[in-house]
Each structure stands twice: as C-alpha cells, then as structure tokens.
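Sanity check. The docking grid for phosphoric acid mono(formamide)ester depends on where the pocket ends up, so I'm generating a full predicted complex first rather than guessing from homology. Inputs follow.
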Amino acid sequence: MSVNLKGRDLISIKELTPEEFFQFIETAVSLKTGLNMGQRPDILKNRTLAEIFQKPSLRTRVSFESSMTHLGGHGIYLGPDDIKLGQRETTEDIAKVLSGMADVIMARVFENKTVRDLAEYASIPVINGLCDYEHPTQALGDFLTIYEKYRRFDGLKICYIGDGNNVCNSTIFSSALMGTHITAVTAPGFEPTEEVISSAKAIAERYNTGSIIEVTNSIEEGIKDSDIVYTDVWASMGQEAQADEKKKTFMPYQVTLDVFNKAKPTAIFMHCLPAHYGEECTHEVAHCPRSVIFDQAANRMHSIKSILALVTP
Ligand code: CP
Ligand code: NVA
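Predicted complex below; grid placement will be based on this.
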C-alpha cells in the first residue's frame, strides 16, 4: 500500500516511517527503469522548484535541476549572493514569498534551524539539501545504491568511518529505519551526538527493525564483517578553518585499500563525494572494482526525482 506524501517536507530521515522511506526507494527504482527505457513522464509540468544554496554543490544542484527537466518542470538556482538568506531578508519572508511563486523548495544551508524555519513558514514542501545535522537526500540515494547491490537492507552492516556529522547522522537514521546494522567509527571527540544515537535506537525499537547501532574509535572493531564501508570528508563545507587540525586528528582513520580489505571480501566502498584523496581515503580505494561511488552519484538524481515526484503538489 502506498503512502500519500504530497505536500510533505523532507527535513530529516528521522521523521519518516520505514514505509515512507521505502516508497522513495521504490519510486526511484521505477523512475530510473523508466528513464533507461527513454521515459521522461512530465508529471511536474509547469511546476517550479526554488533552489536555495548557501554552500557550493555539484551533485545536489545538478540532480535537482535535471530531475525537474526530466519531469517537465523547471528549477531556479538561488545562490548565496542572489538572496543572501538571513542578511538581505529574513528566512520567514523568503519562505512566504517563495510560497506565492514556486511549488517546492530545496535548501542547502549551514544550520538545521534555517531549513526548519523555511519549512515552518513555507506553505509548499521544503526539502533539506544538506545542513549541519543531516543530508537526507544523500541517504536516500545511498540506500538506493545499497538496494541495487544487495536487494535488501536488513541484516547488512555499514561501517561509517569519519566525522560524526550530517552524512553520518542521515546514514544512521536510515539504517535504523531499514534494519541495517551500523557502526560509526570516528576520531575521539567527533562521535555522533548522544541525541542522534538515542533517536536512532528509538526508531529501531519503535519499528522493531532489528538495526544495531554502535559507535567506536577503533577501525578494527568497526570494520569487521562489514558489507559497506562508507566515508566522507573530514572538514565539511564551512569548516575550512579547521581543516589542518582535523587532518592531523583523523589521519589514523584514512580508508586505504588495506583498511577496506578488513571488511567482508564482498564489501562495497561508498563515499558521498566530493572526495579529498590522500585524506579520508585514497584514490586507489575510491576507484577500485568494489567502489560504487559513481553509482551513488548517479543515484542522487534518481532518488531526488522520486522525492520531487512524490512531495510536489
Ligand atoms: N554529495 C553531495 O551532496 O555533493 P554536492 O555537495 O556536490 O552536492
Ligand atoms: N559532510 C560534507 C558532506 C558533503 C556532501 C559536508 O557537509 O561538506
């Protein structure tokens, strides 16, 4: 039975049910299959997406814009210097103005509160295109990639190695919803917060998914028996000033081919990209035969298309 997601915001993976999460995946599979057969259904004909970007982007921007083109609609890029969110105008006023002109908003922002405020004041759906706390559209593309490789989620084990922030958090919440086990391996002091871990455990318990969620500072401990090894940059966008310091702290957590080989022999390597080779991972591991980083990148578009198709009124 499908769930009606029209008009819904997508701010956090935490706010989805397992059925809703899987509906995004199933719809992405179906739209991807259709596109491969040459189908571009114009289900968002005459619809406009407003894209607010406080930070740079390759995958997210092109995925949202290509998706709108494929579905017969249009995307308008609003970069940092275009609207100066919070400086030239308040978040509340921007949300209310866009609600009178566009059909759906995506926002890549620094603070979670900004995207939450947009959702609160907008009368049209708001999609979180990354903030400090989560990257939900990334997680949906990643789980589409995992589904294509394994045809299931339950019982698989993800080992996330890196900073315990946005991408890590969305991967943890998705795992909790889908019954996937996950161990976050971070440098000491960079673990996902207690709030994230307790919320994820509560999700796993509420839906009885069987997901086991763990945190450690030991790669050896975390990577054992993993089906998926996932990493992300050490210094996220906006943390450039801390890059040198984080590099020193995280160097023991670099994913090399030797590290990857400690996971299951069938394991896949994932990275949300952009990658900083020689830091969180080597070029060799990211381009090895079991790396799926470019499937992941392509699946950003298919999953974002699914989100737009399902939530846009
Ligand atoms: N993974 C991701 O969000 O890429 P961009 O920053 O290029 O959008
Ligand atoms: N953690 C990274 C993810 C980039 C897609 C960042 O926030 O920059």
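Relevant for the grid: The chain is about 45% helix and 15% strand.
Also worth noting: The chain has a mean pLDDT of 98.
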